[in-house]
């Protein structure tokens, strides 16, 4: 499978608890941090929940 890079571009301070948990599960902590994951349905669903906070780099 292909890999995607996910970058946190906005702060998670004023987000809901569920969104903070999704960001933690993705491995994103600080703003401008980048993680690499497999491109699958689970990761795509997680990114969809926090799409206003992250940027996907293919």
What does this structure look like?
- It is a single chain.
- The protein is built from two helices and three strands; from the N terminus they run E-H-E-H-E.
- It is an alpha+beta fold.
- The chain has one domain (3-57): Ribosomal protein L30/L7 (Ribosomal Protein L30, Chain: A, 2-Layer Sandwich), CATH 3.30.1390.20.
- Helix 1 packs across helix 2 (41-49).
- The model has no long low-confidence stretch (mean pLDDT 97).
Look at the structure and give the CATH class.
Alpha Beta
Question: What characteristic shape results from the CA principal axes?
Answer: globular
**Element-level helix/strand string:** EHEHE
- What's the number of domains? 1
Give unreliable regions as ranges: none
**CATH fold label:** Ribosomal Protein L30, Chain: A
CATH superfamily: Ribosomal protein L30/L7
Number of strands: 3
Strand fraction equals: 25-35%
Oligomerization state: single chain
Rg on CA atoms, Å? 10 Å
């Amino acid at each position: 499978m292909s890999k995607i890079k996910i970058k946190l571009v906005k702060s998670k301070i004023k987000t809901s608890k569920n969104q903070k948990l999704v960001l933690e599960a993705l491995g994103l902590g600080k703003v401008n941090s980048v993680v690499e994951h497999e491109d699958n349905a689970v990761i795509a669903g997680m990114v969809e929940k926090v799409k206003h906070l992250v940027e996907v780099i293919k």
